[in-house]
Amino acid sequence: MSLQINDAVIWQESAEGVSLYHAETGDFLTLNETGSKIWLLVASDGDQEKIISKLSLQYIGTNAAVSGRIRTDVEEFIASMVTSGLLAENGAA
Questions:
Q1: Is the pTM of this model over 0.70?
Q2: Are 9 and 91 in contact (CB under 8 A)?
Q3: Which of 32, 38, 61, 66 is deepest in the core (most CB within 10 A)?
Q4: CA 36 to chain centre
């Protein structure tokens, strides 16, 4: 699945993480370290499978059990961002 940041979202990376402001809803959110990494990967690539692969390789190599947990966490994070209107899906890969 290809993802993009909603045009109404203004975001900035800082030492504390990534801060998001949705200009249409007025919602403000600061992401934790993991959420920030996922957000930055969406901003640079936008492909959910590539994001999962990059994080899996960075944190655990080829450990299938941990890789499955990373997949679940990324999918849940992205789903919550889509539901909140912060990210938009461009369709299935």
A1: yes
A2: no
A3: 38
A4: 7
